[in-house]
Amino acid sequence: MNNQISIITPSYQQARYLEQTIQSVLQQKTYLIELIIIDGGSADESIEIIKKYANQLSWWISEKDRGQSHAINKGVKKATGHIINWLNSDDYYTDNALKIINQHFYSKDIKGVFGRSRLFNEKGTLGYSLGTDIYPGNLPKTIGWARIDQPESFFLREAWDKVGMLNENLQYCMDREWWMRYLYHFGIDGLIKIPDILVNFRIHANSKTQLQQAGFFREHHSLFYQLGVVAGEKSSLDMIYQNLDIDKSLPTNIRYWNNSNLCKESFNYYLLKTADEFYAQDKIELSKAFLKYIDPYLLENEDMKLYKRLKLRVQIPLSIIHFFRTK
Known about the structure:
Elements: E1 5-11, H1 15-26, E2 33-39, H2 46-52, E3 59-62, H3 68-78, E4 83-86, E5 92-93, H4 97-104, E6 112-121, E7 124-128, H5 139-145, E8 153-156, H6 157-163, H7 174-186, E9 191-202, H8 208-211, H9 213-231, H10 234-243, H11 260-280, H12 284-291, H13 301-313, H14 318-325
Parallel strand pairs: 1-2, 1-4, 2-3, 6-9
Antiparallel strand pairs: 4-8, 5-9, 6-7, 6-8
Helix pairs in contact: 1-2, 5-7, 5-11, 9-11, 11-12, 11-13
């Protein structure tokens, strides 16, 4: 299928990296591409760089906006492609990335294609992502763990039309919340993962990923707090609110979901994932607190094994854990 791909690049004060990002889109070896740049009113050399490529862009604008989510939404509304994604202005595509994506949307049954990325900094390659987490046959886990590698995850335009725009109240987890909404509406049928490295994901001192972990943490747990509200998990919600930084009033569509069983099972997986993460961070008491509210009978067999391992491990003194980790 010859699908047109729309790429939206939100940018603000990123002249140092912007040209490489633009070139990585325009130099793709496929002709059905439109690039839309939404600049937030940069005062560096960004505008000069954008103007240099203006005749190859489908649309661009530079004006003050309400943040990254708002900027991306402006681009999506201008996009005309069958496939849509956004690429931040400090990342860039690998050669043939979009050609590979186009080839994998080979039938109308394919709704999303998910590749991998190379993680790098000024010193070189740091590693490679595993790509967005999709658990075949287990929608609750896919929602409850809700890990999306957005730069290398491509969706059909019709998904955006159904799911809606990014939540502009979110500035850190807007991709995660959109992914949760997608899964709630469409499930996991028609999603395929491919091994190809599609994106070079830059880690640098001024990147949002590095600077604002507290914001990501707060939005992530606030999203799942709302999922727990829909699931009716009052006891665990009281514990979460007492221990984590939660915004109860965060506006999201999750509060209007009406499949209470799916919400309950998904929230149960969130509890398991969070318990595992806190254990890995040596926050043993927090891990215990989350484990207390997990219903193991709602877990698949493999995840039941993780639950049982954690239940045993959180009983081991931290000093002994550290001893064996250094061996």
